Amino acid sequence: MNNKHKVIATTLLLTACITASCISELKAQELKTKKEELVLDIQVRPRAEVRNGVFTPILENTNPATFVTQRSRLGVTYNDKKFTTRVNLQMLNVWGSEPQVQRNATNVGLYEAWGELHLSRSSSLRLGRQVFSYDDERILGALDWNQAGRKHDAGLFIFEKSRFKLDVGAAFNQNNEMVATTTYNDSASQPYKSMQFVWAKYKVSEEWAFSALLMNLYMQHRKDFSLANMQTMGINAFYTKNKISATGSF
Hints:
11 strands; 3 domains; mainly beta; 1 helix
């Protein structure tokens, strides 16, 4: 090999090394970027309704009610290796209920606002306003058919490993910042003073899975302010194979 060929070979080798180094640096940057994620989601859901005897039978010679409601949501979720946070703004309105020139504040509410600390690869702790949605949502669900939805101000411990999932939640509600006592009026707030629940699910096989829910509601009566507890327990079974799926609950 003459000197000319050696120079060409050396140049090609250096070029290959530099290219490989650049590719590895780009991949490293991609991995660093993937550890942090910002997700923006938007929902606009108008719904037309004709009510001809909803809730109670309509009176004779009374016309049905017709209107359009709209739910608008703007959500932002931030994820990194140790922390996740989400804020979801919601506005509910009836078409035509507001003037063209807006003078007052609109009915914008905070549907979700929570922070989640990742304790380990399999466990985390979430605090704030959040949605609880489990299984068929008969007991705890998002109530998504309702334009306002359902949310809770609570804490939630989350554990998930292999085929097993476990959620433990708790909430304590007050109407305002109190100076004394913890009397709670649920007429225009959450329907309970405090709540505790445990939900677990285990996937036995590719076809079978079972879940269980244990929930306690601690409520205060409006008249005499006496306290009462209500417990709910249930088990769900899930079967899925090919295009066949079945569920059962007790």
